[in-house]
Specification:
2 strands; mainly alpha; two-stranded antiparallel sheet; 13 helices; about 75% helix; MetI-like fold
Length: about 280
């Protein structure tokens, strides 16, 4: 028995060491740094919970609201649009479904910079979209539009990955169940609602949690498109932390924001799992 325990530790030891080195230790250091006043990577004054008390006036709550809008967009695309596309392809021929899944997945492997360059031209004041609409919209210059324009581009790029997850989940459903339902007179809508949707619940939970956590980590596309503007309308939590740490140089405040974001992620993810809401 002792030998088996040693063998088990030898197998999981490297993984545990990497987990501690790259996740647990940085998290602990972040919490410690949030308790110190710092400017430009020099930590010199103990301030306790001062950074946490100042989060309300630092613009952090505004960034949380922006990330909430990204979360809404992500859930709409991941739970509704991607799922409907996956279901539609489920009832098509395997060859056609594979071809379409490949087409949808191509944007996922493109770099964010390349995607931003193309969509910046498409959504520019003189771009393709405004030409088709016959009106001029400042998609990235209007505070009311910028966040949704950035979210739209992100979802267009990453919907293919979610589509593959839905397709894999649907592919695990035995065809005998579908055939039996059709023999009993069930139509396509009933099959989707009463068979496909319930049987993909584990995948729905995974997509929901990953989508929620991903919304809190969005920073690349807002930074490339708008830099967080205009007027901070597209400054997400991750971008706010990035700017506070590396532009302002206030590591202590950025660490406090990171700690709160981590706690928020853990609490809400646990709540969603417990309530079975995803």
């Amino acid at each position: 028995m002792k030998r088996k325990k040693v063998q088990g530790l030898l197998f999981v030891g490297p993984a545990l060491a990497l987990l501690f080195l790259f996740y647990l230790l940085p998290g602990l250091v972040t919490i410690i740094l949030s308790l110190f006043e710092s400017q430009h990577y020099v930590f010199y004054t103990w301030v306790g919970l001062e950074h946490y008390r100042n989060l309300g006036s630092s613009g952090f709550l505004d960034a949380v609201r922006v990330s909430g809008k990204f979360l809404v967009a992500a859930l709409v695309y991941k739970f509704i649009i991607s799922y409907l596309i996956a279901v539609a392809l489920y009832f098509k021929s395997p060859r056609f479904s594979m071809f379409m899944r490949t087409i949808y997945y191509v944007p996922v492997v493109l770099s964010g910079v390349a995607t931003v360059s193309v969509w910046r031209w498409i959504l520019s004041p003189n771009g393709l979209v405004n030409s088709l609409l016959g009106r001029t919209y400042l998609w990235f210059g209007d505070p009311n539009l910028s966040i949704w324009a950035v979210a739209f581009v992100m979802m267009m790029q990453y919907t293919g990955g979610t589509l593959l997850l839905w397709s894999a989940a649907l592919g695990q459903i035995p065809t005998e169940v579908i055939d039996a339902a059709r023999v009993d007179g069930a139509g396509t809508l009933r099959i989707i609602w009463h068979i496909l949707t319930p049987l993909t619940q584990p995948t729905r939970m995974y997509i929901g949690i990953v989508g929620f956590l991903g919304a809190l980590q969005v920073w690349e596309h807002p930074w490339l498109f708008t830099g967080g503007g205009p007027q901070g309308s597209s400054t997400t939590v991750a971008l706010k932390i990035f700017n506070t740490a590396f532009s302002v140089g206030n590591i202590g405040s950025a660490s406090a924001m990171t700690t709160i974001t981590l706690l928020l992620s853990v609490v809400l993810a646990a709540y969603l799992i417990r309530r079975g809401m995803v």
